[in-house]
Amino acid sequence: MRAIETPIPGVLVLEPKVFGDARGFLFESWNARRFAEATGIEAHFVQDNHSRSAQHVLRGLHYQIANPQGKLVRVVRGAVFDVAVDLRRASPTFGRWFGAELSEENHRQMWVPPGCAHGFLVRTEFADFLYKATDYYAPEHERCIRWDDPGIGIDWGLSAAPVLSEKDRQGVPLSDAETYP
């Protein structure tokens, strides 16, 4: 596994070693020892989630203000543009975003540490998106920042209007959001 640093401290893109031939491929999608060696992070995951979304669905930008979750995310079918936004006020990159394409072809994963909001846009007919979380889902602590907040300025590369949930339509701008120290 290769860990690629991003402009946001702690947000990493991970490239596994993929072994393939005419029969197909194999790679380790999770190995605690290799993850720790590549990243220096000792992650303890308590929950795995699987979401399927149709093309143009945009989910996010979500985070939990209490019980913050670190997330290891990947796509097993289709492709998404995956985004992390730094919500740690003490960070030199507070309010900045980073995005990367995750797909069934590139097998990339992204580590979104606690203290960051997370979202993704589906670029293919549908996408199966998997993520491991370091803390349990706590809906009473869930918060949502507007996906199109001009103060953040995410370039989603939209080819059509995004399909949003009611929760995501009601996201707040970063300037009004609860953030981390």
Lay out the secondary structure.
Elements: E1 2-5, E2 12-15, E3 19-21, E4 24-26, H1 32-39, E5 47-54, E6 58-64, E7 71-77, E8 79-86, E9 97-103, E10 109-112, E11 116-122, E12 126-133, E13 142-144, H2 166-169
Antiparallel strand pairs: 1-2, 2-10, 3-4, 5-12, 6-11, 6-13, 7-10, 7-12, 8-9, 8-11
Give a brief rundown of this model:
With 181 residues, the protein is mainly beta.
Q: How does this structure look, described?
A:
With 181 residues, this protein is mainly beta. The protein has one domain: Jelly Rolls (Sandwich), CATH 2.60.120.10. The chain contains two helices and 13 strands; from the N terminus they run E-E-E-E-H-E-E-E-E-E-E-E-E-E-H. The chain has helices spanning 32-39, 166-169, and strands at residues 2-5, 12-15, 19-21, 24-26, 47-54, 58-64, 71-77, 79-86, 97-103, 109-112, 116-122, 126-133, 142-144. The strands form three sheets. It has a six-stranded antiparallel beta sheet, with no helix packed on it. Strand 3 (19-21) and strand 4 form a beta hairpin. The longest helix has 8 residues, at 32-39. The protein is globular. The mean pLDDT is 97.
